[in-house]
Design goal:
The complex is a heterodimer of chains A (409) and B (403). Chain A has 409 residues and is α/β, with parallel strands linked by helices. Chain A folds into 3 domains: 192 residues, Rossmann fold (3-Layer(aba) Sandwich); 100 residues, 60s Ribosomal Protein L30, Chain: A, CATH 3.30.1330.20; 29 residues, no CATH class. Chain A contains 16 helices and 13 strands. In chain A, strand 2, helix 2 and strand 3 form a beta-alpha-beta unit. The radius of gyration of chain A is 25 Å and the shape is globular. Among the domains of chain B are: 76 residues, Dna Ligase, domain 1 (2-Layer Sandwich), CATH 3.30.1490; 56 residues. Helices cover 35% and strands 32% of the residues of chain B. In chain B, the strands form 5 sheets. Chain B has a 5-stranded mixed β-sheet with strand order 3-2-1-6-11, sandwiched between helices. Chain B is globular and about 80 Å long. The C terminus of chain B is likely disordered. The chains are: A alpha/beta (409), B alpha+beta (403). Chains A and B meet through helix 1, helix 9, helix 13 and helix 16 of A and helix 2, helix 3, strand 11, helix 6 and helix 8 of B. The complex binds adenosine-5'-triphosphate, guanosine-5'-diphosphate and magnesium ion (2 copies). The site of adenosine-5'-triphosphate has 23 residues of chain B, from helix 6 and helix 7.
């Protein structure tokens, strides 16, 4: 079979921001910032200074330093609101300049519960497409937390274009009954990580077969029913089969069984240019075996880049969705958003650092001066040839002291 | 749960990556459970230059520490150093509404104001260390909590550094799904275990000479007065020998440790050291005087720079307890004597004390920073006994799952 035709007109690149709010949100944002080579801006927003210190997000904003003294909101949304009021400028800054804003938080605490809806509203006002990915607390965290989460969720629904809501209880139940605490957390975080990665890929889908933003939103639109989600990744000869297997094994699909209950399902395949029609067809055939006959399947395919890119299958659906006819289209103009192909991800920050260890080197001038009277210059820095020179009062101290003394005499 | 808390200190040093696992009691006692080490690769002058290699060494050191201590490492206190670190002292003041009692809030406000000072855009503040408070101009207030006044002032020692460089180090740890409890500047950590309270009071300088960086910190009146890092260390000596004696770098390192001294003289003139041949090296006779002269030039210069930097901020007569040297390079012969001549004050070689465990193995100046980290962690925890939300929450979870 022939491969999919590729789009010709170059699409405008959409700027996507991921904002992690509160401890849980910052945690998950960190994971994405570190692991997923996604072309997104990451922002960590918290009233807890310690969580920010240790974050690797590209931008960190502390909320209400005068209100909370960097100690967090203590699980109290009122306090978090006060902190937010103090830092309205920072919040505006966080939601500005993006076509898509993805908000991520664990609801039930102070900061995440209070600030996420606020940010959603602000981002909406700036004309961005707003997606929220949130969790609700474990039941045993107590009524107060559940209540806070419920209120926050209701408020959030009024402002977002799409909402993905996972229940911690359910995720934990589904992970591994015997997993220990940190494994459970890690597993929950892992699912959220995959979900956000999947959404970014769908939104930034460069084709050849993009998922319509409206389709994505109608599945994700806030409403009743649980969120279904699965994601798998594989390379090599049997990649189509393997990645689908993995996606179906996701706990949030209950080994694929839950797909039967879904009214509308999005399937997205992202892979190298060598992705064939036969592979796409095989995946879709397999998925339709797991869904009800009346289910509406939406397919998106993006293939680009070199053959080393893995095939990633993402499945998103919602149970108990009664198709709300033509949910209002997002007010933003999003004709076709596109991101660089997955095979050519933005280089991780550390590479940049390594490649350019002399960024802050103030030395070009001094080195020249030195060269004038130091004949041994080419070998004299030895082991430090590639590191940032140690300059004190204009002298390059990587050059052996005894040599410099000899020259001076 | 027991009162003991496990803390892990991690230093990604120029020479070695080192992780210390310790059990900290509420009474201040620290029991070392194990130390994991791995020789460093990809680290120069205290900072990562090759992420892949450094990351592998971090992994090895952590795995080693887990095995030796029989503890699973979930989070670490991380040491930070490098030439990008900068510090200054800053006074801030805040007026109280009317004559009212000073609460945590006012103290928090005055600290926040001290940090409002402008630092370069790409920098972040790593520490703001309280030096002293003034209430209505009155000096010598140690704890203003509960005092009455109209004006609260405070002096802080602020340490800041370049954010991306610090993040680089953090990233290297987080790669392995290990949390960073907090980042601590090397000199601040080292001082925790080599200085006694009375030395801090009388005034003292701690100088940690490592492989790529020399970290220093100055105490007086019990508080930090000055701190800094300069990217010169044992590597420089080794490199000088490699260039000056024309021998391979590994031989230079060995020669430095086995034969080298920072003091010249004290041996018969013309004395030679024979380096035996080795693969790729045909052997050589080295003049002992030349060897020591090269080392002396470097060490001399280092202490002169340090002296100048320290005395710019803290006058000499305030350093009653003198100079304390630690870090691997403090083991170099003659270093103490050279320091004594330059500073013209008493100089002592020190390593971590007041810890228990299979101690003798830990009485090593190379471990000062790392052991200092756990002491620092313990001090922070003792200051803030209330549990964080997360820890409370995790405990709850523990309880409910019956784990
Ligand atoms: N017995 C010894 N005599 C002389 N020098 C020594 C001795 N033992 C270790 N060193 C030197 O000490 C240095 C390593 O010290 P240390 O382990 O404190 O450094 P590090 O913490 O890895 O580096 P840094 O803190 O600078 O990043 C090396 O340069 C090594 O040559
Ligand atoms: N999956 C996951 N959930 C978390 C994590 N930390 C906290 N939560 C959940 O998020 C809720 C809010 O906690 P937190 O983010 O600490 O509060 P905030 O910082 O005040 O917003 C908690 O009630 C937990 O249910 C985490 O690391 N992973
Ligand atoms: Mg060190
Ligand atoms: Mg050092």
């Amino acid at each position: 079979m022939s491969p999919y035709p590729h789009h010709e007109e170059p699409a405008k690149e959409a700027a996507i921001s991921l904002i992690g709010i509160g401890n849980a949100g910052v945690n998950i944002t960190d994971r994405l910032a570190m692991r997923a080579a996604l072309p997104i801006r990451t922002i960590a927003l918290n009233s807890d200074q310690q969580s920010l210190t240790a974050s690797v997000a590209s931008k960190k904003l502390v909320l209400g330093p005068m209100t909370t003294h960097g100690l967090g909101a203590g699980g109290d949304p009122e306090r978090a609101i006060d902190a937010a009021k103090e830092s309205l400028g920072e919040l505006q800054e966080a939601v500005s300049g993006s076509d898509v804003v993805i908000l991520c938080a664990g609801l039930g605490g102070g900061t995440g519960s209070a600030v996420t809806p606020l940010l959603a509203k602000m981002a909406k006002e700036k004309g961005a497409l707003v997606v929220a990915v949130v969790t609700s607390p474990f039941q045993f965290e107590g009524r107060r937390r559940s209540q806070q989460a419920v209120e926050s969720l209701a408020e959030l629904q009024r402002h977002v274009d799409a909402l993905i809501h996972f229940e911690n209880d359910r995720m934990a139940e589904l992970v591994e009954p015997r997993a220990d605490v940190s494994e459970t957390f890690a597993a929950c975080d892992g699912l959220l990580f995959q979900a956000i990665g999947g959404i970014v890929r769908m939104l930034g889908n460069p084709g050849p077969l993009p998922i319509a933003v409206n389709d994505l939103l109608s599945v994700l639109r806030a409403g009743a029913g649980g969120c279904l989600f699965g994601c798998g990744e594989s390379e090599g000869g049997n990649r189509a089969h393997e990645s689908l297997e993995q996606a179906l094994r996701s706990p949030l699909l209950d080994r694929g069984r839950l797909l039967q209950e879904a009214g509308k399902i999005l399937v997205h395949l992202s892979g190298p240019a060598s992705l064939t029609f036969a592979e796409v067809a095989a995946v879709m055939r397999e998925i339709s075996k797991n869904t009800s006959a009346s289910a509406h399947l939406c397919l998106g395919v993006s293939s680009a880049g070199d053959d080393s890119a893995p095939l990633i299958v993402t499945i998103i659906g919602r149970t108990g969705v009664e198709e709300r006819k033509s949910a209002p289209a997002p007010s933003v103009a999003m004709p076709s958003i596109s991101t660089p192909p997955p095979a050519a991800p933005a280089p991780p920050v550390e590479d940049k650092m390594v490649a350019d260890p002399e960024v802050a080197s103030p030395t070009t001038k001094t080195q020249k001066v030195k060269q004038d009277f130091l004949p041994l210059e080419p070998i004299a820095r030895g082991r430090f040839e590639r590191s940032e020179p140690t300059i004190v009062e204009g002298e390059d101290l990587d050059v052996p002291t005894f040599l410099r003394l000899k020259i001076k005499k | 749960m027991a009162k003991e808390k496990i803390h892990v200190g991690l230093e990604i040093g120029t020479t070695k990556v080192c992780a210390v696992v310790a059990e900290c009691g509420r009474d201040g006692e620290i029991r070392l459970l194990g130390v994991g080490e791995s020789p460093s690769r990809g680290v120069r002058k205290g900072e990562m230059v090759d992420f892949q290699n450094a990351s592998k060494c971090v992994h090895d050191a952590l795995a080693d520490a887990e095995e030796r201590s029989d503890q699973e490492i979930k989070s670490v206190w991380l040491a930070i150093t490098g030439s990008h670190l900068q510090s200054f002292n800053n006074r801030s003041s805040s007026s109280l509404a009317e004559e009212s009692e000073i609460t945590e809030k006012e103290i928090g406000d005055v600290e926040y104001k001290a940090k409002e000072i402008s630092i370069p855009k790409e920098n972040v503040i790593l520490h703001s260390i309280i030096q002293r408070y003034y209430v209505d101009g009155q000096e010598g207030v140690i704890d203003p909590l509960g005092m009455l006044g109209t004006k609260l002032e405070a002096d802080y020692h602020i340490i800041h550094g370049v954010m991306t460089r610090i993040q680089n180090t953090i990233r290297c740890v987080k790669e392995f799904d290990i949390d960073v409890d907090d980042v601590v500047v090397n000199s601040v950590a080292s001082a925790q275990v080599v200085l006694s309270d009375s030395q801090k009071q009388a005034g003292a300088v701690v100088i940690d000479i490592g492989g790529g960086v020399t970290d220093y910190i100055v105490y007086h009146d019990g508080v930090v007065r000055h701190s800094g890092a300069i990217a010169i260390g044992g590597d420089h000596i080794t490199n000088d020998l490699c260039i000056g004696l024309r021998i391979p770098i590994t031989r230079a390192e060995k020669l430095k440790i086995e034969e080298g001294s920072a003091m010249v003289g004290g041996h018969p003139p013309g004395e030679k050291i024979t380096l035996r041949n080795d693969t790729g090296f045909s052997g050589k006779e080295v003049d002992r005087e030349l060897l020591n002269m090269i080392i002396n030039a470097r060490v001399n210069e280092l202490f002169k720079i340090l002296k100048k930097r320290i005395h710019e901020v803290v006058p000499e007569h305030l350093l009653g307890s003198g100079i304390l040297l630690t870090g691997g390079c403090s083991m170099l012969r003659g270093v103490r004597e050279v320091a004594e001549m330059i500073f013209d004050s008493p100089v002592t070689l020190v390593h971590a004390h007041s810890v228990s465990g299979p101690t003798s193995a830990f009485e090593n100046p190379q471990l000062s920073t790392c052991i200092g980290l756990v002491k620092y962690a313990q001090a922070v925890n003792a200051d803030m006994p209330e549990e964080t939300i997360m820890s409370k929450f995790k405990k709850l979870l523990n309880f409910n799952l019956g784990l």
